[in-house]
Each structure stands twice: as structure tokens, then as C-alpha cells.
């Protein structure tokens, strides 16, 4: 099978050539390329097929090559899925750690019994050919308070030691992370756990972020109670401040489609976050499924720290080079634009931007609202709200089937899929003057299956 064409194919977001995509995995810079691995089920657009790792690489985050499926569930320790994980560079070798998922036959709940969650280590010299899977941790190595759900190793190097964080569910249904350390990437020692009260039953895809000694723990918790302007999706993703304990959880993204992000550091020291622009178990739909593929990743976003310690996200600066012709749309005016485009505007008070006549982005001075007024355009998505008492600017990157909205310098971000009938869309603005840039598409080539 090969690349499936379709009218909603994105111009700026990485998608699976066919089948299903979920979490980004193994993000790194190695051997002259950015590497973006991802959870890939090539056989089926609904995610039910064999879970593998697909692989994209790029010298500049603009020209991408899909090299194919690089990790398959082909050993007893990962036979039911090559689940999420991460990559670290040591010398000339890329070391990958992922969760090998195993489901035993029999009468099991697959939470307290019947599931194996192995941390598997593989190496690669070129990012594509994987050598020697070796299990370095299995369920018997995790603390006794853990259920069978322990997964998504993220590894990094800190003060001369390799460290690993894993997401977990305890036997009394509490989400937490487990820390391990190693001197040689083979032997791992348990260093402790971290959690906070009343914060969901499972934490997936943990990541530890360090900005000059200021630490943050990113996790994707499941089981949080939904609110009007928070935790609106089925599952969440966000970051805690991590000083002596965990405080102040902030959601990374307030839109409909964002889960299981991962970060990495570029050679010039920028911390970049990339997420799945999707979530499992959603009540809305993506009409690319009948075409044979589903989901994409977010744009790579640079994370910076605001003076109050909040984390800001903005599209990587590389994307500016894709900007073409500029159009000004003044307060009260409308325009027709070809997707993809990049809108920026200063905000001085309440405003409303409407795309395709049915995607309304509105700020009233207190709440920012992203609302679909047409069921088809949003695939059943309705409204998402973010509490925002101050907003100095907005940037919208609209692709062929998504929007990413960056507010107030990237302090609040909302991502959503959307499915316009045509690449030529209407845009009207009230309460601000917008600059709109046409965007060239990224170059993506497909070298493998
Ligand atoms: C998050 C997740 C991870 C797991 C992977 C399986 O979306 O559930 O915890 O490793 O997806 O595809």
C-alpha cells in the first residue's frame, strides 16, 4: 500500500500515508535530521490494527521524508503493540525506549492482570534500521502498588546520569509517574514516584522539561472531572510546575484535538513540543476515515517561559519561511483565502473571526470561544472555551483540515480539526485588523511503506 491522496490532506502537518496515527514518539535531532516517529497502525484507519512506529525525518522541519514503518510488534515482549516511547543520542547511536504491549489470553481485566508492559531498548545508527530489541524493565520490576498499566518511557541525560520517567496507574486507580536512572542505558534502578491527589486514574506519556533548573512535568492524565472552561475533552494533556512537589496544572491546549505530546531539544537549545492532533475515544468524527487514513500531528511549537513561569507555545520560526503574499483584512471586512494561511493580529478588545462561515473564534474580554456552527465542518465538534482575561494578540495557522489558534503570545492555544468542502475559504473579522499570509506547503516525500 502507499500514500492515499484525499481532499483534506494537510499542507503543514505530518499525517500517516495510510491507516492510523496517534502519539509522536522518539522526537530528537540525530545524524543531521530531525526525527519524528509516531504511533502507526498502517492497516486500518480506525486504529484497530497492529501498532507500529512510523518514521519521518527532516533536515529543517520543512522538507520531510517518510521512511516507512521502522518498528513492528514482532517479538514475544511487544507482540500486541510497539507502544509509545522516546529516543536519546549517545555517541553515534540513537537509543530508543518504548513500551512493548502484551495481552495474555484468558479472563482478564487487563488492568490488574493479563497485560505486560515491557520497556524495550533498541538502537539504530541511521534512525531507520533498528537493531536488537532488549527488554530492560518488565512488570515484575515496577513497584508493587502499580497496576499492569505502566508505559511510555521518556529518557534524558541529566548531571552525568540517564534518567527515565514512566506513566502509571496504581492498583487504587491513581495516576502517577515512576522515575528510574541508569549509568549504561541497560540497567535501570527505581528512584521513586510522583503524584498529586485527586488527579485522574492514569497518567500517560510523561515528559520532564527543564528550563535553567526550573522543572515542569508534562503528563496526559485520564479521569479528570470536566469543567466549563477546563478539562473539556475526554482526556487531558498539560504540565505541572515541579519544584519540591507538583503544583499548578495547566492544559497545553484548550481545543478539541490534542493529546500525548512529547518534547525534545534542538541543537540550538530550543525546546520543541509536538503532539497528536487527536484524542482516543472522541465523540466527534474525522471524515478521512472512509478515505483510508486518520489523524495528524500538531505543528512543532517552541516552548518558552514567561516571566510568571507559565509556558508559552509558538510555531517554530522555520515556518515563517513558508509565508508568501500578504493580505490585510480590516475590521468589518471579509476575504477569500486559499488554505493553508497564517493570520496575525494585535488585539485591543473583544473580537470575532469567522472562517468558512461556521468556525467562530471569539473573545469577549474574559472567555475565548472556538465554536462550530455547522456540524459537518467540525465533524460533530461543538464548542471549546478558554478563560482569558487579557489578550494582546492572536495568530491562527489554518491548514487544509485544521486550525491552531495561538493567543496572547502563545499563553493559550487551541487546536482543532475541521473539514471544509474546498481549499478556498471565506474569512471575516470584527474588532481587529488582521494580516493574512498565504503559506507554501511543506515538501513531504514517501520513501517507504
Ligand atoms: C496515548 C497512548 C499511550 C500508549 C499509546 C498506544 O495515546 O495510549 O499511553 O503508549 O497511546 O498507542
Describe the structure.
The protein is mainly β. It has one helix spanning 375-378; strands at 19-30, 33-41, 52-58, 63-71, 82-90, 93-103, 115-124, 131-137, 146-158, 161-170, 175-182, 189-194, 202-211, 214-222, 238-242, 246-251, 259-265, 271-276, 293-294, 301-305, 311-315, 323-329, 334-338, 341-346, 351-355, 359-363, 367-372, 383-387, 393-399, 402-407, 412-417, 424-430, 434-439, 443-446. A 6-stranded mixed sheet has the order 19-1-2-3-4-34, with no helix packed on it. The chain has a 6-stranded antiparallel sheet with strand order 22-33-24-29-30-31, with no helix packed on it. It has a 6-stranded antiparallel sheet with strand order 23-32-25-26-27-28. A hairpin with a 4-residue loop joins strand 30 (402-407) and strand 31. The structure holds beta-D-fructofuranose (FRU). Beta-D-fructofuranose binds at residues 22-23, 39, 51, 83-84, 99, 151-152, 204-205, 259-260, 280. Beta-D-fructofuranose binds next to strand 1, strand 5, strand 9, strand 13 and strand 17.
Task: Name its key features.
449 residues, 34 strands, mainly beta, binds beta-D-fructofuranose, 6-stranded antiparallel sheet
Quick summary of this structure?
This protein is mainly beta and 449 residues long. It contains one helix and 34 strands.
